[in-house]
Amino acid sequence: MTRLLSGVALGAAALAAILFLPHAALRVLACLVAALAAHEYLHVLHQDGRPPRAWPVLLLVALVAWWMSAPGRGDVLALLLLGLGWLAIEAVFGGVTVERAAARFLAPWYIGMPLGMLAAVHAIGGRMAALLLIATIVVSDSAQYYAGRWLGRRPLAPAISPHKTVEGAIGGAVLATLFIAIAGPRVLPAADAASLALVGLAMVALGICGDLFESRLKRVAGVKDSSALIPGHGGILDRIDALLFATPAFYLYLQA
């Protein structure tokens, strides 16, 4: 019951934010969510010891989210150079290993960039486009779960996520692709069903990769959830793992 109630509350809050918040407020919200998710990412990353200071990474994550949330803002070279500079400082002067510094450097691009792109989708395509993106991932995740329970026989990635199956992935791909191909033209009248089906298939594949990527992070760290922030669901990162990988595909589709 706790999981159901918190899930409904979370979904209602996300729906209200997309439908009623102006774009400027949504950009701020994207930065806050990105910073919280990045904090969870760093917590998972540093399970094996005392973490270096987190605030520079969180600041860069929020900065990348803010920059990418502006419509038409696709040049991230300056932010990339800033991040590379901080990576060098951590590795040379901060006593952080190159591997760990590189993993910390990933946070702005793994978390900040796609959440900024989600807010940009809201500005470029409108509220319904942002909802279409999120709904496609929800349909994919739900279809994967139920198809996996009913038909699942062959594990997809047993060493990372034992419960994911090939049959579940196929079910998610089929239903989510059908969903975006049917609903998409009503939200984006200039788009055709065939191109939407292709981007939907790419989103499902990337979403599965995002889910497995976060599962791999947690398995290496030896933790079940990224945090206990959302009762019954874990942390923010646990809820948006597929969305983080899928959003750039839809963003680039709108920009094309």
Share of β-strand residues? under 5%
Report, as a whole number of angstroms, the end-to-end distance: 43 Å
> What about the largest sheet?
2 strands, antiparallel
Low-confidence stretches: none
Q: Number of folding domains?
A: 1
Rounded to an integer in angstroms, the radius of gyration calculated over CA atoms is 18 Å
Number of helices: 10
Helix content: over 70%
The average pLDDT score comes to 90
Give the strand tally: 2
Give the strand line-up of the largest sheet: 1-2
Structural class: mainly alpha
Elements, N to C (H/E)? HHHHHHHEEHHH
Global morphology: globular
Structure description:
The chain is mainly alpha-helical and about 260 residues long. The chain has one domain. The protein has helices spanning about 1-20, 25-45, 55-70, 75-90, 100-105, 105-125, 125-150, 165-185, 195-220, 235-255, and strands at about 155, 160-165. It has a two-stranded antiparallel sheet with strand order 1-2. The termini are far apart.
